[in-house]
Write a structure and sequence with these properties.
This is Cupin. Pfam families: Cupin_2. Keywords: Dioxygenase, Oxidoreductase, Plasmid. InterPro entries: Cupin_2, GDO-like, RmlC-like_jellyroll, RmlC_Cupin_sf. One of its GO terms (molecular function) is dioxygenase activity. The protein is an alpha+beta fold. The protein folds into two domains: 41 residues, no CATH class; 291 residues, Jelly Rolls, CATH 2.60.120. The protein has seven helices and 21 strands. A hairpin with a 2-residue loop joins strand 17 and strand 18. The longest helix is centred in the N-terminal third of the chain and has 14 residues. It is globular, with a radius of gyration of 22 Å. The two termini are 13 Å apart. 36% of the residues are buried. Bound molecules: 2,5-dihydroxybenzoic acid (GTQ). 2,5-dihydroxybenzoic acid (GTQ) binds next to strand 3 and strand 10. 2,5-dihydroxybenzoic acid binds next to strand 3 and strand 10.
Length: 354
């Protein structure tokens, strides 16, 4: 959406203190409030004033605290053993990385099981470390390896298990703040799922080639639940090699049957920075989260520069340009990006500023 940018000076409006206290009390007694003292706060001139601050959560600081949670709190007392990556701009207790995004680092120890449930918020997992864990989503067992993206879309049953020998950690990204704000957030507990045969990551393993049901449609709103990192990385490497002049070597995680975003509210992308590359992402309305899968990247957001090592996570408010610099001269770096773009597009508020 494009707004006229011709700036007119904004009129100073009357304050609450300018009104007789007895009048304000009479209004409040009828559950009424005057708009004009708050008008500039809810409709600020030119652009929003986000509470979302540029924040970085280095994995080296987070990991020992997460492992301690593993010692302090057994699974039965946690259900999901998660440390929430909270943005202080929203208040730590509100569990928001941005207005619509929740981030959590979840730990599952060998032999543990996080019981089956389903809920209205959409979630994805980005696997950070460890082998041998799996998430069963809607009956499909999805193995978890570093960099894999696994969807648990709204309403689908999911549970996590671990047959390996080392701790497994993943990053949860949920649209919980938005769904909670809408007063639509709830969960239902369930029984252990029976696993069904079939894997979307096999059926949809080749771009541009999709299974064609002859005897009726698959009927799955979410035909692909697991996006292996090996495939995503290969797609990025092939794109980088095929198009040497391409500035942004980026892919989007989509529904392979419709081409639409993989989930309804948040968007997910992987970006490869060429050795030494600096890439400026224009200011766009959605807030963004950057999680470094491999390499080393300096992320410049407003006055902040975060130097991301592998497994580090940071966030940027919307309406803000972000510059990414691959500090490796001889190897690519790969970044997982979560953003609020599907939501903004659906609501008609999506903007690119420059
Ligand atoms: O793994 O199902 O970080 O339900 C927050 C809520 C993870 C999960 C979170 C959840 C989950």
């Amino acid at each position: 959406m494009i707004f006229a940018t011709k700036a007119l000076a904004m009129q100073e409006l009357g304050r609450l203190e300018d009104l007789p206290a007895e009048y304000v009390d009479a209004l409040r007694a009828q559950n009424l409030v005057p708009l004009w003292p708050s008008l500039r706060a809810v409709l600020p001139p030119g652009q929003p004033r986000p509470n979302t601050r540029p924040i970085c959560w280095p994995y080296a600081a987070l990991r020992p605290l997460l492992m301690r949670a593993g010692e302090l709190t057994p699974m039965e007392k946690a259900e999901r053993r998660v440390l929430v990556l909270a943005n202080p701009g929203h208040g730590l207790d509100n569990m928001k990385a941005s207005a619509a995004m929740y981030l959590g680092m979840q730990l599952l120890l060998p032999g543990e099981w996080a019981p089956s449930h389903r809920h209205t918020p959409n979630a994805v997992r980005m696997v950070v470390e460890g082998e041998g864990a799996w998430t069963t989503v809607d009956g499909e067992k999805c193995p978890m390896s570093r960099g894999d993206l696994i969807l648990t879309p709204t309403g689908l049953w999911h549970e996590h298990g671990h047959d390996g020998t080392e701790p497994v950690v993943w990053l949860d990204v949920l649209d919980l703040p938005l769904v909670y704000y809408m007063e639509t957030s709830y969960a239902i507990e369930g029984q252990r799922q029976t696993q069904r045969p079939g894997r979307g990551d096999q059926a949809y393993a080749r771009g541009g080639l999709v299974p064609t049901p002859v005897f009726g449609r698959s009927g799955n709103a979410y035909p692909m639940l697991r996006y292996p990192w090996a495939e995503a990385r290969a797609a990025l490497a092939a794109l980088a090699a095929d198009q040497p002049a391409l500035e942004a070597v980026q892919i989007t995680y989509v529904n392979p049957e419709t081409g639409a975003d993989a989930e309804n509210i948040l968007g997910f992308h992987a970006l490869m920075l060429r050795p030494g590359q600096t890439l400026r992402l224009p200011a766009r309305s959605p807030a963004q989260v950057f999680h470094l899968i491999e390499g080393a990247v300096a992320v410049e957001i407003e006055a902040h520069t975060f130097t991301l090592q592998a497994a580090d996570t940071c966030c940027a408010p919307g309406y803000t340009a972000v510059t990414l610099h691959n500090t490796l001269a001889d190897a690519p770096s790969c970044v997982f990006i979560a953003d609020e773009s599907p939501l903004h597009r659906k609501l008609g508020v999506y903007e690119v500023r420059n």
